[in-house]
Amino acid sequence: MMLTVTLNAALDLTYRVPALTPHTTHRVTEVIERPGGKGVNVARVLAALGHEVTVTGFAGGGTGRVLRERLADEPRVTVAFAPVAGATRRTVAVADAATGDTTQLNEPGPTVTPAEWAAFLDTYEALVHRPGTTAVALCGSLPPGVPVGAYALLVRAARAAHVPVLLDTSGEPLRRAVAARPDIIKPNAEELAELTGFHEPVRATRDARRRGAHAVVASLGADGLFALTPDGGWQARPPAPVRGNPTGAGDSAVAGLLSGLAEGLPWPDRLARAVALSAATVAAPAAGEFDRTTYEDLLTRVAVTGRRAAA
Ligand code: ATP
Ligand code: MG
Ligand code: MG
């Protein structure tokens, strides 16, 4: 059983309109409502790969109730959100059918009180100590009210429970949590440059490891993944850039890395899986979903170069 944490979960709403024009009324031709937030997306991909997964974080209000119910209906997903008094945020994506462009509106989410944060920590502690928890992913930004050192605390708790932990966040929460020695971080190029001050992946990943991360997997958009790990350094690339919707590609990369970690796959195989999954997510029209045939085809064609560290 894997665990994903989404402190800033959301109910994602997509409206499709024929053509988006300011100051006019639009006829909505399609509405999609589904649970969202980064760790929730990771969980959905893990479940699609056949893994059992528990989702935690915060859920509250009417939107939180919908979030829990919808997730509970998904096969292989167990829901374990902690309560928050405010309502779970909504995000609204307005998809313009004429251009293919999307306009995104994101609510900030409810403010978490100190008592709610403390109650979440109890829930999380119980989940990481539960027998059978094989890996945990901490994903996304922090909602208002949650302390900036939150992820550092959650990394330490997972490590104390001997559960490997993958972190995908940015800014100051990432900086603090890296010092708590997570097993894997998955920054994109911009997040890694902000953390380290280096833009060049070799120097930047080396610096991030020096700051405390055991393995650093930088995601480089269409250039795939660049990984520096205790076992060696590799780059995994898709056979060609994929055109499509990159929303949620990073979350699919995290799901690939987490499942590979839980299954004990060697690093090159984990990276190949993560690249194939994330590229297949770009290829799928709906954000955060992947096309299985494309995934299986890409898996045979991802190029992994690099080398194992000297023993
Ligand atoms: P997110 O917005 O989901 O957080 P991110 O910015 O963290 O994403 P990216 O580096 O943009 O992450 O993308 C994650 C992975 O998705 C890449 O490492 C790559 O494997 C795959 N990917 C992204 N864009 C493309 C593309 N155009 N073609 C092929 N693969 C892609
Ligand atoms: Mg990106
Ligand atoms: Mg990302």
UniProtKB/TrEMBL annotation:
Which Pfam family, an example, fits this chain? PfkB
Supply the Gene3D superfamilies for this chain. 3.40.1190.20
Q: What keywords tag this UniProt record?
A: ATP-binding, Kinase, Nucleotide-binding, Transferase
Q: Which PROSITE patterns match?
A: PFKB_KINASES_1 (PS00583), PFKB_KINASES_2 (PS00584)
Similarity annotation: Belongs to the carbohydrate kinase PfkB family.
Residue span, Carbohydrate kinase PfkB domain = 11-289
The record's section on InterPro entries has:
Carboh/pur_kinase_PfkB_CS (IPR002173), PfkB_dom (IPR011611), Ribokinase-like (IPR029056), Tagatose/fructose_Pkinase (IPR017583)
- The name under which this protein is listed is 1-phosphofructokinase family hexose kinase
